[in-house]
Amino acid sequence: MGSNEFANLPYIGQAILRKEDDRFLTGSGQYTDDIDPGRLVHAVFVRSVHAHARIKSINKSAALAAPGVLAVYDGQDVAQDKINGLPCGWLITSTNGEPMKEPPHPILAQGKVRHVGDPVAMVIAHTLEQARNAAELVEVDYEPLPAVVDVRDAKAAGAPSVHDEAPDNHCFKWAIGDKQAVDEAFAKAAHITKLDLINNRLVPNAMEPRAAIGCYNRANDEYTLYVANQNPHVERLLLTAFVMGLPEHKVRVIAPDVGGGFGSKIYLYAEDACVTWAARKLNRNVKWTAQRSESFISDAHGRDHVTHAELAMDSNGKFLALKVHTDANLGAYLSTFSTAIPTILYATLLAGQYTTPQVYVEVDAWFTNTVPVDAYRGAGRPEATYLLERIVSRAAWELGLSQDEIRRRNFITEFPYQTPVALQYDTGDYHQCLEKAMELAEVSSFEERRKATEAKGWLRGIGYSCYIEACGLAPSNIAGALGARAGLFECGEVRVHPTGSVTVFTGSHSHGQGHETTFAQVVAARLGIPVENVDVVHGDTGRVPFGMGTYGSRSISVGGAAIMKAIDKIEAKAKKIAAHLLEASDADIDFANGEFTVRGTDKKIPFAQVALAAYVPHNYPLETLEPGLNETAFYDPTNFTFPAGTYICEVEVNPSTGEVRVDRFTAVDDFGTIINPMIVQGQVHGGLVQGIGQALLENCVYDRESGQLLTGSFMDYAMPRADDAPDFRLGHVCTPCTTNPLGTKGCGEAGAIGSPPAVINAILDALAPLGVKDLDMPATPHRVWQAIQSARN
Amino acid sequence: MYAFDYIRPTTLEQAADLVRQGAQCIAGGQSLLPALKLRLAQPSSLVDLGSLTELQGVREEGQSLVIGAMTRHQDVANSPVVRSKLAALAQLASGIGDRQVRARGTLGGSVANNDPAACYPSAVLALDATVITNRREISAGDFFQGMYSTALEPGELIVAIRFPIPEKAAYAKFRQPASRFALVGVFVAKTTHGVRVAITGAGYGVFRHSGLEDALSANFTPEAVADVEIGTDNLGEDIHASAAYRAHLIKVQTQRAVSMALGKEV
């Protein structure tokens, strides 16, 4: 079935209410911490209070003697049991041909701690209270060492070394693009725009903190790990094959209801391995749930780039070349996908929506004494978009071109389009997105609004951002060539039950995205059955055949496509059954609206009757066809998908205090085919608020001397609230993706990717009369006020 | 949270006895409970003042409002008498924390805790209120003694606070972006005795500013403070604001408060 035909099916494009909300809104969701598998004991982690220290000794005796304590394990116990460290899933090769530095990442510290929060010991007791009390009795004798938390410090000569394996803290130098061609283009440029910026470090803060329960069954030597995770099969693969040396078939990983991930629950974490390991040692089921303050110092953080970029143009503002250097902070250890984020998922997006013929990007990645940094909603693409849309806006200001004009002059208009940084865009319509956004944003009456704002003593500015992202990760062979140590396909199983209802088993994982509804709509549309008759099962390696999980806005485009392929098989087999029942040839059977018909006749049979025949095969072609109607398919995409759009933000700024108010925000996105517009709208809203949060509020700050986390709670780390955002104006353009059968592109991250530069560009536009030319995120009142003060002086 | 005994006395005397014996009292718990959860406080017993109905409510006494120590923020915010006689205090209460905090947090709890960024202490100090305890009456000027420190003695509990009704008053809070406590909060009160300006959030405890008070006593307009020097000594400096920014905001928020007190939109 082609994507156009698919888009016209019933249920596709319908805003039906989310099936999962009934249980979420009535408190009957089952999150990991809600689960009690029996024989439960509780784990608490003793974590480093130092950013960097040598462990001289650990005295466990007082903790072991405390009431209710079953065990206290430390790094020595881990080493004794030959439990390996956590692996990194993406190998980056340096420009000199050497592999990245990959120092060990132990699940409990071995001799040294490398960031505040680094787990040192695990205390297990009958009750959580007992475990907490005993954890305070574990005496760790530290020898504090000098710490380094900022990449600009980490790269300095003589900086403290985080790892002996990388004495200069350098993990890799990676580059993409044709440097010589870029240099030549710069040599003949009429104008060069330069920009230095910092992409602020963020703490993910999913509503549900991380949690894990390790279970062990002595009868069959099988483990079960319940874990708040976005990709249970990947978790199992990493846990069994790399860390614990267990056969995969002996381990079941269940990621039940998960309350938000944003990337932070993709990874295999130390705690997951620890509770699984301890379960067998103690023959108990071991539960750990992070406290919020623990999340701040143990969940992988996001972003944290320091970048210099230069854009070369001809005299008409046509882009000739872009060159970029980025220092990326990887934190103390390599988290699961950390190395792919500032490279593969960042630099490849730096062509943006533009025809820039040459792009060269160089990335240096550094270890620091901070929590590991990995993917966070957008993962590399927000960093790319922020840089590109900031420098394009600055170029327009420097050249005296309007913000829309400079973009129009450089938009890609012909597809497929091969960028100079590896990606090939299949389709898009950037002019249409821009036009529609300008119309929705009422740009034509902006000057009137500006005057009204100025009349009350404030300033008003308008900012643009034309983003593109690569989603639907990924063609496995391309990912493999780029260093991925895993495939990136997806699996779906469609099980038609005898009475015609359907259970779908998907390797995608829903942790807020509404897959139970969207995926059911896809199946109901294809099979012509009521959406109520379709249930979606996910998040359980014991029930779902296989899966690579949910991240990078890949679920519908990859997971959905696998389900489409499984339905193709269901349909093909059902046609044969129908042909037999209708006494016709397979070739003459049509299937539409839930009915099989014989072309040119009035003979027909409903889907449910065919399903029943498959399971009660009395009148059935048993000699040529197996009974049953249950099909599995794997789908490996042939390309990424490329959602794109234009965002326009209007802000009001109080020049006296630096307060910024987002007055209007318009987002026009091209997500290709939209299955449930209400869910898409929710995804865009959430993404926009996260992006506005990064632009105005959120900032993870470490003390540059001590390495202590200064923003370790919501008292100091500012999360966006509902009143920080305006009502959004949303619009859509649809150029269906040409490489998957649904025509979908993914919508989960767009808001967070596209919005930060729109906000900052708007503030810079507002402050232009005061001479402010630069501003880093988050644009807090204090920072905006400081920018105004320094422009004045 | 560490384990503790929980006691809910029904008379003020019982509560005072228990506190004298070393128990920690809990009023609304909006600061204490988070501290307990983080194991930053370890009381052996906790005395819940929630049943002491005599500590709740608002009454008018001559030219003053007397507000019970256990009156919740939301009840101050919604009280018709506070709204009509001392609207600035109702407005202050309506901006503390969020709805959940306002439903639990109490006037007495906030004032006794004397968080350097809490809102209420600025109203108590600017209005020259009197803190009435189970033993004595303490003037606002004597009560606040710097960050988390007050004149309360062991076993002494706040019963109520008497707020003289001013001619004009207003509170202008500039929120710290994360906590939404006061980065700088300025309470301005104009009475027949002159103008008092109390500032919270900016320093290491609520304080008055004589330069602002003199200027406003002479001329109660926002413009009057334009040239007042706001020194940065004793102002806080952290990741949210430099001392210079706090000093700047003291002036801006004072001007806003004066405008509000004069009934102008800000």
- The gyration radius over C-alpha positions of chain B equals 18 Å
CATH class of the domain at 168-261 in chain B: Alpha Beta
N- and C-termini, Cα separation of chain B: 43 Å
Q: Give a count of the beta strands of chain B, DSSP E runs of length 2 or more.
A: 12
CATH class category name of the largest domain in chain A: Alpha Beta
Write the layout of secondary structure elements.
The complex is a heterodimer of chains A (793) and B (266).
Chain A: H1 3-7, H2 21-25, E1 40-47, E2 53-59, H3 61-65, E3 69-74, H4 75-80, E4 112-113, E5 119-125, H5 128-135, E6 139-144, H6 151-154, E7 170-176, H7 179-187, E8 191-199, E9 211-217, E10 222-227, H8 232-244, E11 251-254, H9 270-282, E12 285-289, H10 292-298, E13 305-313, E14 319-331, E15 358-367, H11 381-399, H12 403-408, E16 417-418, E17 424-425, H13 430-440, H14 446-455, E18 459-468, H15 476-481, E19 490-496, E20 502-506, H16 515-527, E21 534-538, H17 555-581, E22 589-592, E23 595-598, E24 604-606, H18 607-615, E25 630-635, E26 644-653, E27 660-670, H19 677-696, E28 728-732, H20 750-767, H21 781-792
Parallel strand pairs in A: 1-12, 10-11, 14-15, 20-21, 27-28
Antiparallel strand pairs in A: 1-5, 2-4, 2-6, 3-5, 7-15, 8-13, 9-10, 9-12, 13-14, 16-17, 18-26, 19-20, 19-25, 22-23, 23-24, 26-27
Chain B: E1 5-7, H1 12-20, E2 24-26, H2 32-37, E3 45-48, E4 58-61, E5 64-68, H3 73-78, H4 80-85, H5 87-94, H6 99-104, H7 107-113, H8 120-126, E6 130-133, E7 137-139, H9 140-143, E8 158-164, E9 168-175, E10 182-191, E11 194-200, E12 207-208, H10 210-218, H11 243-261
Parallel strand pairs in B: 1-3, 2-3
Antiparallel strand pairs in B: 4-5, 5-8, 6-7, 6-8, 9-10, 10-11, 11-12
